[in-house]
Amino acid sequence: MNNKLDSIDISMLTALQCNSRISNAELSAKVNLSQTPCLRRLRRLEKSGLIERYSVQLNHQMIGASVSAFVFVKVNKNTSKNASAFESAIADLPEVTECCVLAGAHDYMLRVSTATLQSFELFLKEKLANVPMTEGIESTIILNQLIKRDAPLPTHR
């Protein structure tokens, strides 16, 4: 679908990434289009899969997730079967808010959120270390995540 995006589609996507709760009236005004064609375009973008979902960004401190970290994991024998077992186990850990497959020294990067350093330590020792196929774990505590977080994807061509 990417090659079928025009400047109005790109403007819509940019506006939606900044505020996914924007009304159709506000969106149509921002992109200089009447409401009915704007809604039609929005539905087309959703149906195509380009817009995967709408979400809310919560304040980590206020929700009680004061500690965030990047955790790098090396799995034992990175085969499809082992990767599948690892990924399935990770999916059941609520502390893991993001999981990425990497190329390089580590096989996975997890973003982990916990209430305290003690709960982070317990997560590492009692949960992650016991996940099948986990061979090595390295973690980096995030000191300040408000510098640039969940920035919109560039939609320019």
Q: What are the segments in which pLDDT stays under 50 over at least 5 consecutive residues?
A: none
Under CATH, the topology of the largest domain can be stated as Alpha-Beta Plaits
Report the CATH architecture of the largest domain: 2-Layer Sandwich
From the N-terminal CA to the C-terminal CA, the straight-line distance is 13 Å
Helical stretch tally: 6
Strand content: 15-25%
| Gyration radius, rounded | 20 Å
Q: Describe the strand arrangement of the main beta sheet, using strand numbers.
A: 2-3-1-4
Structural class: alpha+beta
Q: How are the SSEs ordered, and which strands pair?
A:
Layout: H1 7-18, H2 24-30, H3 35-48, H4 60-63, E1 67-75, H5 80-91, E2 96-101, E3 108-114, H6 117-127, E4 134-142
Helix pairs in contact: 2-3
